[in-house]
Amino acid sequence: MDINDLKIFQTVAEQGSVSKAAKELSYVQSNVTARIQQLEHELGTTLFSRHRKGVALNADGRKLLEYTQKILKLMDDMKQAFHDQEDPSGPLLIGTVETVSSLPALLSAYCKQYPRVDLSLVTGVTEHLMNEVLQYQLDGAFVTGPIQHAEMEQDYLIEEDLVLIAKKDEAFSSLEQCLDKPLLVFRAGCGYRARLVQWLGQQGVAPAKIMEFGTLETILAMVSSGLGISLVPKSTIRHLEAAGGLRCFTLPEQFSRITTVFIRRRDSLLGATMQKFLDNVSEFHRMNKAAAAAVQGAEEHLDASGRLSAG
User: Would you identify the family this protein belongs to, as annotated (predicted)?
Assistant: First the structure.
């Protein structure tokens, strides 16, 4: 049984005649008859009652017609979903690490622009999200990059600074005082956690204690309480730093510069839903680069103005 069998069956049912259906489909009548007989053989039942003027559906035929209409409608909807390039629709399942500060704006813009897309978001650590993309459980994911994997495509979203954070009190007044404090991190597989452990190793320090948490909000609350230290993007804690609850320490650039990329399987079908999403990722990357360049230019201008004033 294939889709053409169902189309032939539906046409015979609509026309009430094998000969009329054959003419409608541009088939020879014997071919239509053979396909209907084959369909009846596969289902183990007759589908039509034969009479002098043609054929009419019997009870089993009416049952099959209901299924046929649903199947053919679903097939049409599927084709439409791929052909409608300007107004895509359908499900889109995306994963992300918790600390992508620009993600709410990106997703909000995408959902407003393409309201027929059913977008769902799940969170996790980089290693776990990569595995889910590879196993076709996610359409794509925002992870710590860059990623080197033969089966992966990646699109850059943003590059930002990581900072070591601690409670703003005397117990954490210097970077050296932070070295023996517990690490408050996401579970193994997190890119930020790996950076922090790598930096401590360069300092000749083995973490005294590692405490795992499931959300960024919990980690920030625990750091603010003085439980330990963590490494997070600076953009995620500006409000806490401004409020005076956290102290930030800068690490060497090799540990502090972090890139977020959007990954997907290289062999996945690039339909309209995903293509439009990638377009939005590309646009946000362009805007982030432009904003960063503008900030850098303003800082250089202020620095130059200060030197001229001093002179």
Answer: Belongs to the LysR transcriptional regulatory family.
